[in-house]
Design a protein that fits this description.
The complex is a heterodimer of chains A (106) and B (120). With 106 residues, chain A is mainly β. Chain A is built from no helices and 11 strands. In chain A, strands 2, 4, 5, 6, 9, 10 and 11 form a 7-stranded mixed sheet that branches. By secondary structure, chain B is mainly beta. Chain B is globular. The N and C termini of chain B lie far apart (39 Å). In chain B, 32% of the residues are buried. Classes of the chains: A mainly beta (106), B mainly beta (120). The interface between A and B is medium-sized, with 20 and 22 residues.
């Protein structure tokens, strides 16, 4: 099974800060990676697909990069509405989620 | 408009079998390429994919839970059923169903989720 290691598990940053979350796969998944944002009590929402493809309606401050085994989600200027938990998910071989990164405002 | 909704018991006892139903609208599991999965999330923990069923009746299961899981569908009623046998307290989680056409790798529509507690 492909495992996904996400870091950090949580972070606290100020409004306007640049924030980066990383995700590492145990084997090459090419660009078969999705990033989700989840708010408490809600289902996850897709932000980025195919590692770097921004979904329609998602603010341009979100971006994704990487391929193979190493990936990153970057928020260029953190906003208060960005608080929540972020998950990576691979779909190269069935589906596996990362452990999540909880983002808070300092 | 695509919607999915999970239903089933909120409380079950250890060793029992959980049966959850996902009732959906706005799409058909008779459509080529259509798939529905179940995903769960223990309180405060990460998402875990459980099982998938396809328009052509193919089934896929999480390797860690495959001996306990069964997924099925009733296309005439637009529903997907998941059973999880031999429940333990660690199976306490919010269970989601989600749609994902084969043309994409992500789950594009999700149900609201339902919390299932396993306790005696």
């Amino acid at each position: 099974d492909i495992q996904m290691t996400q870091s950090p598990s949580s972070l606290s940053a100020s409004v306007g800060d640049r924030v980066t979350i990383t995700c590492q796969a145990t084997e090459d998944i090419s660009n078969s990676l999705t990033w989700y944002q989840q708010k408490p009590g809600r289902a996850p929402k897709v932000l980025i697909d195919e590692a770097s493809n921004l979904q329609t309606g998602v603010p341009s401050r979100f971006s994704g990069s990487g391929s193979g085994t190493d990936f990153a989600l970057t928020i260029s200027s953190l906003q208060p509405e960005d608080i929540g938990t972020y998950y990576c998910q691979q779909y190269a071989d069935l589906w596996t989620f990362g452990q999540g990164t909880k983002v808070e405002i300092k | 408009q695509v919607t999915l909704k999970e239903s089933g018991p909120a409380l079950v006892k250890p060793t029992e079998t959980l049966t959850l139903t996902c009732t959906f609208s706005g799409f058909s599991l008779n459509t080529g390429g259509m798939r529905v999965s179940w995903i769960r999330q223990p309180p405060g923990k990460a998402l875990e994919w459980l099982a998938r069923i396809d328009w052509d009746d193919d089934e896929f299961y999480s390797t860690s839970l495959e001996t306990r899981l069964t997924i099925s569908k009733d296309t005439s009623k637009n529903l997907v059923v998941l059973t999880l046998a031999n429940l333990e307290p660690v199976d306490t989680a919010t269970y989601f169903c989600a749609r994902h056409p084969s043309s994409i790798g992500y789950f594009d529509y999700w149900g609201q989720g339902m919390l299932v507690t396993v306790s005696s």
